[in-house]
Amino acid sequence: MKITYERLFFFFSIFILAFFITSCNSSAALLQFTSATEIKTFPYSKVGVTPIIPTTVGLATPASTKESKPLLPALPQEINFEASDGQELRGYYFPSASDQPAPLVVLMHWIMGDMSDWYVIAPWLQNRGLQNPFESPTGYGWLNSAWFPEIPDDKSYGVFIFSFRNCWPYPIGCKAFYEEGWTLDAQAALEKAAELDGVDPDRIAAVGSSIGADAVVAACALVNAQQPGSCKGALSLSPCNCLKIGYRKTVEMMGEAQGSSPVWCFADDMDKFKCELAEDVENPAFSIFEFPGGGHGNDLLSSYVVPSAMQGLLDFLDEAIGD
Fold first, then answer.
1. pLDDT per position in the chain (323 positions), as tens?
2. Distance of CA 145 to CAs 87, 138, 160, 317, Å?
3. What's the structural domain count of the chain?
4. What's the CATH code of the domain at 127?
5. What is the 3-state secondary structure (H, E, C) of 49-87?
6. CA-CA distance, 200 to 148, in Å (whole number)?
7. Most-buried pick from 12, 90, 132, 133 (CB within 10 A)?
């Protein structure tokens, strides 16, 4: 992983802020539980699997031959929506190849970028042969699909990406911390996702990186509190414990909701302690997975990470919203 002065400054800033917020969140209001969550590593590594190299743009053969309704085009649809405080937000929806209401994953970016961080991963999960239709940075593992694990031909997810308020493409990133605003943005994204054409509202999960790692759990907990089962699971890549509702508390809230939606936390050996903030909460669906030397956030989604966090992402989706 390339170390730059900007990256060092980012990590230092995250550490200082997270230390302060963690101290605040450790008040007596949070209950202490005795059940422990085992730290796991994936028993496989698929870094060298057959690559997926998209060759066509447009429609692919649908997963089902039963034509129950017209298939939506593969090209992403621009989606405009609002958070509950009136903040205007923008995103893109990549429809599934299914002619039936399909599972959907909402991807939430880190502080060092915006939704463009998902421009390559989104069509990979969509699995319709679509190439990245946007301009985006190069040279980063998560923006090079040549090494990505193979997805079966009959599996296709709808994908919804968006940018948090006041965030710009890498390496500019987000201009400041919006502890409350980002939570509202994430909740609005999940609520909008359930309204998208072709989506099964009962099969929605979320994956996020760094600030997005916090936001996916917070948003899932909030929508599930309003309508149990609305969010079927949350995967956090290096949570930073940076939002107003602390990471530990949101994992606890997910455990209190009806059902048992998986809450997975991926981190390297340096960031693992953030996952461990929630290891003793009363949530049997919470699991920690360690990726030694994997780096922070999106860096985990790189070809050099062993075991493969990208394959772990697919396994999470299989458990949360798979058939």
1. 444 434 444 444 444 444 434 443 433 332 222 233 334 433 333 333 233 333 333 333 333 443 466 899 999 999 999 999 999 999 999 999 998 999 999 999 999 999 999 999 999 999 999 989 998 777 788 999 999 999 999 999 999 999 999 999 877 899 899 999 999 999 999 999 999 999 999 999 999 999 999 999 999 999 999 999 999 999 999 999 999 999 999 999 999 987 789 999 999 999 999 999 999 999 999 999 999 999 999 999 999 999 999 999 999 999 999 97
2. 33, 11, 18, 18
3. 1
4. 3.40.50.1820
5. CCCCCCCCCCCCCCCCCCCCCCCCCCCCEEEEEECCCCC
6. 26
7. 132
Residue 65 lies in a domain: no
Residue the block writes with tokens 């496989």? 44
Q: Judge contact between 97 and 60, C-beta under 8 A.
A: yes
Region of 241 please: left (phi>0), alpha (psi -120 to 50) or beta. left
Quick check: is 9 in a domain?
yes
Query: Do the domain assignments include residue 182?
Result: yes
Length of the chain: 323
- DSSP type of residue 217: H
Does residue 64 lie within any of the structural domains?
A: no
Q: Which amino acid is at 10?
A: F
